[in-house]
Amino acid sequence: MVVKRQGLIIWFNQMKHVKHIKKFGHMIHVSKKLKYAMIYVDQDQLDDTYHSLIKLPFVTKVEPSYKPFIKTDYESKVMEEEKEYDYEYKMGI
């Protein structure tokens, strides 16, 4: 069974709080310079995790990732071949 997950980007004040943030989900990336961490959580637990992270005193902002909602169906290659034909015709070749 595949569990649907979604990313959360957590902005914080100091790096010493990263260990505490790790408990909320699967940590993927931490930026020392920009002071943010990216974690993945299950989509059904996203709201609970979001609200519990916002309440922490060292967290400045929490942003959800919109990757699961982005359309990933692309156009066919036939459209590109038609465009190439149009360019050749306009150039007078």
Keywords:
elongated; 4 strands; four-stranded antiparallel sheet; alpha+beta; 29% strand; 93 residues
Structure description:
The chain has helices spanning 18-21, 46-54, 78-91, and strands at 5-12, 26-31, 36-42, 59-64. A hairpin with a 4-residue loop joins strand 2 (26-31) and strand 3. It starts with a strand and ends with a helix. The protein is an alpha+beta fold. The mean pLDDT is 85. A 4-stranded antiparallel β-sheet has the order 2-3-1-4, covered by helices on one side. The radius of gyration is 21 Å and the shape is elongated. 11% of the residues are buried.
H/E series, N to C? EHEEHEH
Mean pLDDT: 85
* Broad structural category: alpha+beta
The main sheet comes to: 4 strands, antiparallel
Query: What percentage of amino acids are in beta strands?
Result: 25-35%
Helix share bin = 25-40%
Strand order of the largest sheet: 2-3-1-4
Number of helices: 3
Roughly how many Å apart are the termini?
56 Å
